[in-house]
Design a protein that fits this description.
The protein has 330 residues and is mainly alpha-helical. Helices cover 64% and strands 3% of the residues. The relative contact order is 0.11.
Amino acid sequence: MAETTIAPAAAPRRRRRGRTLTRRDKLVAACMLGIPLLLDLALIWIPALGSIFLSFTKWTGIGSIKLQSCANFPTAPGIPQPGCLNGVQNYKQAFTNYPDFWPAVQHNAIWLGVFIVIATPLGMLFAVILDRGIKGTRVYQSLLFLPVMLSLALIGIIWELIYSPNLGLINTLVHHNQNDNVIDWLGNPHLNLWALLVEASWRQAPYVMILYLAGLKAVDPSLREAATVDGATGWQTFWRVIFPAMRPINIVVLVVTVIESLRAFDLVYITSGGNPLRGLELLSVAVTQNIVGETQRIGFGSTLGVILLVISLVPISIFLWQAFRREEQP
């Protein structure tokens, strides 16, 4: 009669207890979450909400703001009007009665178009060439990235010397540096915007290059190998395999491009010496001129700032929504 063996009963699993956070852990977590949150609120959200409120007021920065309609405070020459609620009159004035508004919108749109059509493809081209591992890649990468390391103020000074009418590099090379045939690159309203766009693209293209270099390094090498086995050319491999795989980088580049084009200020301010020049109207410059300029129209300047914020958020939000929606679809 065969003996039956009874397997030993499995020992009951002990339920793991969740680790209890100590008082020190809670303090560290509170500091790591609380300090960035407070800084974010203090430096971004509170000023943004404050600007939205000020955009509906008529305030010069002197005295307090009365929560009453400006119709209750008649103006008198020589007497500063106290802060008051102006409703949507600031927005109405910006769209209908502010001569620099629509030229500024147009110039910001041109700035964005040049960044998308010229600076971004140029930066992508640099990244693709450097990613091939050519001899001296590190040296070329450092030289191309040098403009990004320089401040916009210094870039403006450098290009002012290049664009100088009598002693500038460009006019000297084309022999237009005499008083009778000089080309005023920065003073001519038909040329100064395009001259500044050359400066801005000189800095923007290497910035895009670094972003795409990081994206190219993160692409799975097996994708390239599979495309090569299928007989795809280098051009086909990049546009049909590599470029779609860099969708997160493409989103980042687009967002950065929109932000950089709308917040363009330093180069224009340095070139114009703080004074408005025809042909260089930008929304960021108009905001600064109204808030810290001689007029001290903080309410109206905040209105322009809110308009700039909305213009920048709308295309970015739409693109991000569509991009994330594509990722969620099977």
